Amino acid sequence: MPEKTQCRAEDREAKLGTLEGRVALVTGASRGIGRAIAVGLAGEGAKVAVNFQSDSSGAGETAALVAEAGSRALMVQADLRDPEAVSALFAETEKVLGPVDILIANAGITRDGLALRMSPEQWDDVIATDLTAPFLCTKAALRHMMKARWGRVVFISSVAGLKGNAGQANYSAAKAGLLGLAKSLAREVGSRGITVNVVAPGFIETDMTSGLDEKVRDAALEQIPSESFGQPEDVAAAVVFLSGPDAGYINGAVLPVDGGMSM
Ligand code: NAP
Q: Rounded to two decimals, what is the model's pTM?
């Protein structure tokens, strides 16, 4: 059996727990989808670095849930728009938990408005948080992954990145950019046992969507064949799978988790 095929087979058979001994870093894990991902990965045995920007009490709650799931958590504050903060985030994680084997680039923001009225600040802020930060985090993570010849990177994109969305030119551009970034990286590092994939959630019930008015929610629901909104755990299940030993031959893929909304 060729060496790389053998490695994947061994990975699958080991089912170590299934992420026992792995270190995961989840950006934007103080609430919502990031929190569910952190807890999901912990449930499979991974130690989890819980990154947040400002909500330390939310990050504390996530860390407590990770501990409840039987794993170790580290809370790390970092504003991912700042490249130095990204370096410090990885240094701190490595010092306390070990080098990052699994990177989930989840942190994201919206600054909605019609493109004609969108300010350069609205554009820049979203591109910096939703596209440049995942690039910076991946660069920092790949150093160890390349040496270890094993790694998992998952970007959290959006249905808006697949289809576009009126009022979200900045967000859609950033989220679509993640697809190109993931596919290019998958080609660059696939030979080293590293996979880079994208999960594209549809309408998920979190703080990001709770402020939307009833009309917008009703219109969204009409576009969802599964006739319900998603929960953070629906997204986490896909991310945990892509992070695990059974997903070693999935690379450069885009997986919608949207009840069929993007069809
Ligand atoms: P959320 O509840 O608004 O949480 C966003 C998270 O990102 C928070 O933990 C926040 O940290 C963190 N964050 C924001 N800016 C940051 C920065 N500069 N540095 C570090 N962390 C930062 O969002 P969510 O709904 O869970 O969404 C998570 C991801 O899924 C995002 O990428 C979003 O675009 C994507 N998504 C969401 C939906 C949906 O329907 N909810 C749909 C498609 C895609 P603090 O709390 O500390 O500020």
A: 0.97
